[in-house]
Amino acid sequence: MSKFFVIMLTVCCITLMSFRLTNGDQPTTNNGDTQIHWLTFDEAVKKNQEAPKKVIVDLYTGWCTWCTKMDKATFQHPAIAKYINDNFYAVKLDAEMRNTIHFKNNDYVYRSGEGKEGVNEIAVFLTRGKLNYPSVVFLDEAMSNPQPIAGFQSPIRMDKLLKYFGENHYRRVDWGLFNQVYKSPLEATFKTNN
Fold first, then answer.
1. Which of 12, 54, 122, 186 is deepest in the core (most CB within 10 A)?
2. What is the pLDDT of residues 135-165, one digit of tens each?
3. Domain boundaries, the chain
């Protein structure tokens, strides 16, 4: 093989690899809407009163390392962001916020001395008393029946959870069975065990 051919082959391989790393592993969306439209809890309540829709709550704290990792790895994934924007009102909620939240005729206040930095009672309500960060909580169209899921969720697992709750499979099928049967389209782009 000539030196020129080897150099050209190397350049082509590097170009293809860089293209794959920057473009190939990230599915694109038709409308380019790749960021989640986060709302406050109060904004979601108001929007839900006008047009009922399921709600997903990202429950986090400022000190939670895994919360930050999930925000970058999962919530910034274009396919995840698009599905959430199309099917849910998305709430980003600091579990340690000091503001009072009025929800369903109750006032949820900040309680110091609980948890690492204190906690807002709405976080206790949404997680059914089992605080863990990060957590995602799914609420139905009536903003009731909180379904908390604790811990870091990869894009593949989040896709499964979004479909399970977003398409009402949770009303008919056990999560364990759904998780085994449903194959996320994201599995083709990620080579991880979930």
1. 122
2. 999 999 999 999 999 999 999 999 999 999 9
3. 33-188
What are the beta bridge partners of residue 38? 90
Element (H, E) at 88: strand 88-94
Q: Is 164 helix (H, G, I), strand (E, B) or coil?
A: helix
Is it true that the peptide bond before 134 is cis, omega within 30 degrees of 0? yes
Strand partners, 110: 120
Rounded Cα distance, 77 and 191, in Å? 15
* Tokens linked to 138: 């799914």
- Token pair listed for 8: 């050209």
**Residue among 150, 53, 40 at smallest CA distance from 102:** 40
Distance of CA 193 to the CA centre of its chain: 18
For residue range 22-65, list pLDDT tens digits in order.
333 333 334 456 799 999 999 999 999 999 999 999 999 999 99
Cα–Cα dist 7/3, whole Å: 6
Tokens 């759904």 appear where? 178
Place of tokens 């698009």: 82
Q: Are 57 and 91 in contact (CB under 8 A)?
A: yes
- Look up tokens 């959430």; give the residue: 84
Homologous superfamily, domain 33-188: Glutaredoxin (3.40.30.10)
